[in-house]
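1st attempt posting a full record on here, be nice pls
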Amino acid sequence: MGSAPDAAPTPASTVSSTSAGTAERPLDAPWSRPPDDVLAELGTDAGGLSNADAAARLADVGPNRLPPPQRDPLWKRILVHFDDVLIYILLVSAVLKAILGDWVDFTVILAVAVINAAIGFIQEGRAESALEGIRNMLSVNAEVRRDGAWARVDADDVVPGDVVRVRSGDRVPADVRLIQATNLRVEESALTGESVAAAKKVDAVGADAGVGDRSSMLFSSTLVAAGQGVGVVTATGTATEIGRIQTMISEVRSLATPLTRQLDRFGKLLAVLILAMAVVMVIIGRVFHDFTVPELISASIGFAVAAVPEGLPALVTITLALGVQQMARRRAITRKLPAVETLGSVTTICSDKTGTLTKNEMTARTVRTSGRTFAVAGAGYAPVGDVTLDETDGERHADLAGDRDLAALATVMMLCNDARIVPDESDADGWRLVGEPTEGALRTLGMKAGVDPTGWWRVAVVPFESENKFMATLDADPDGGLHVHVKGAPDRVLDRCATQVGEDGGTEPLDRAFWDAQIDALGGRGLRVLAAARRTAVAGTDDLDVDDVADGLELCGLVGIVDPPRPEAIEAIAECRDAGIRVKMITGDHAGTALAIGREMGIVDPHDGTGENVAPAVLTGPELEEMSTERLRQVVRDVDVYARTSPEHKIRIVSALQSHGEVVAMTGDGVNDAPALTQADVGVAMGIKGTEATKEAAEVVLADDNFATIERAVKEGRRIYDNIRKSLLFLLPTNGAQSLVILVAVLFGLTLPLQPVQVLWINMITAVTLSLALAYEKAEPDVMRRAPRDPKASILDGAYVRRILLVSLLIGGATILLFYVERAQGVPIAEAQTTAVTMLALGQLAYLFNCRFLDRSSLTLDVLRGNRVIWISAVTLLALQAVFVYAPFMHSWFDSAPIDVVEWGKTLGLALVVFLLVEVIKWVGRRWTARDHVPALVERPDAGRRAGLG
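the predicted structure (as tokens):
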């Protein structure tokens, strides 16, 4: 096993020596020192600590856990929700109202700003709480030697100097220097990026060894794949290797999201426009119409309050929070609200293979003996599925009694094996692996074939070592006969064989050329190939070493193993392609295996690599190392499979994609993946196999480690973006209409149809009722059939801006018309203003139904169904407006007055006219778009074929 690509500096291990009275001191490079020296310096021995000593050390060094990331103080987390230019305008307006002594207006304006901040603060807190539920990185308990006896304690209570014992399936509780090791192999991919479990031994290594080469050390939070070991704890908590790296990751800066960038630009532009118009209005009102200063201040505040969509920040927050809740139900936890929307703008998804695109359950698919090929059904570790043989007269079930060649191979794979397949306690019908995935697949094969290991017992073993690439066992059968069983890499096993098992179970000469061809054929199908061999041992033999299996073995056959793709992931990849999203697979597998899996999953077209593409079908880590940044940028969009990569390569791939303006989502699980996740526009961490550092660096955490969850999140992000656009299309014309009413009155020296506090009333009830209803809209039918939107494009294009202006004129014009007609008829100003407010409320209610569909016609029965919140909001709006019109206390607060049925009839009639005219505007927009529409051209000659369209 190689070292980690960029070995980190040696962390200092924490030591507490209560006997010497010292609290802590560093222990340098324990992996390079003999175990006895490490024990002596830690003030302990192989018998472990006493409970009293352990308690004293725990008081010195603190609990063995990674602290949560440092959070901003409460006041800062609250104030950040006021950090919006539109809210600033509201706060300034409130201050001016307080200076003028209009305390009712001041209270209402301030209340709106506070409510917005409270909603954002609460919803982000809920999202963070959801993440807490899946923080399960550290082991729950550990087996330590205390007071001379083994005991299980909480992992938080483990201290430097504790002697711990780990076995297959355990998670290592702290950084440990080994003092005993038996066939010990540990899964360290979270730290090193190595997909193969690392062999561990007691022997010291060089002080300058990288993390991946410290074979005498076990690291906190890694998983024991096989064997057992005993060691002394050298570091706990943040002093561990994983704790040190997590601390470094917290310093990485993250990017702004497309939504936050667009809304920030939009808010600043709108603020400048509002202030400019207010200045123009004051100048005209003072110079041409001789308004008094208090009147001009009141009119300006009314205009600013009318023009500011103060419901927008809360609306966006609530829409995103609803998306968080929806994604949580779909097994994705969103740590940062805007990340939900960012997923909707993703153009490229870079995904790990193991466990995300695949099931992470190695499965034997093919058995090849000297004369026949057997197919193995089923997936994963469940011992359910038949072993069948294709014959000329059809398929038949294999039988160990009749198929002696299969029996020989399955017996070797069952017995030369340290894995166990046991019922899953959390799933009544499930099975769980204890051990390494490859051995689990072979154990399951033996169970499917019907091998019964009862009566067999192991006498000796040669454990798997990376330099040998095979495992051998000396096993006694129920009758006492001794047999050597070997499994491992085909080339290493073949080198040791002289004969092979025939179809009838007999012995025949080895045909090396035949087996080499079979190995290539299975490897070309993306299968990992293992070989099985055997021989009879001399009676009385009780030991086994590497030299005993150097030659003279009898080859039983080959097994092709694969990590099967998730069926739902294959469908999700097809959905992504339809949505114009490229999926790129990044794996540590060999290029041939990776390409075969990519083709099976639909990531790569089956014909890729046979044409005249400039870019290769698959790019390996060594090739990446040799590529310049400029060359990588040239090919990165065309290469969909990256093999033999380390986590360090991911950040180069992400940066190269982003140089083309791509919005990139990157998945990861290991600590070294965290920088790439931070660099990506959306970092997606694995909730099951992901490290704590990776989860903290990510915006989204997948609770099920499933690629299909990412695709569903993309769909949710697009729905949310659509709903935010619908909300903007609704809010801005309503604010535009209100500000137009005041602007026209001031510019022409007329009586104000609305008072500032009345404007706030209509803003508040529509924002709290009508605009929130659009956050619950379902996805448009074509949401996953559109190309990804350009993240640089405005959230509202020219057509929508024209619609906003026209609708503002319609609703504002209807309100002005109704108010001045009422005044001309001698209606009191309070009653006329109440009618104007009612016209705005009903006009906006009618327009809400126009906004349910962005471009489709709302003259359909579909507009009346599919979102019950619309009707709840409509009834609530009418009820609140009735209170505004008829409640005496509202007359005192808002200067409103009762109106009769005739006024209600006028407002309802004009609201219906507004609805129909907006539909005419949408129809003209559709015709305009259809006239100007030009089908998109394929960018590259092979683009259609590469997307599976050719």
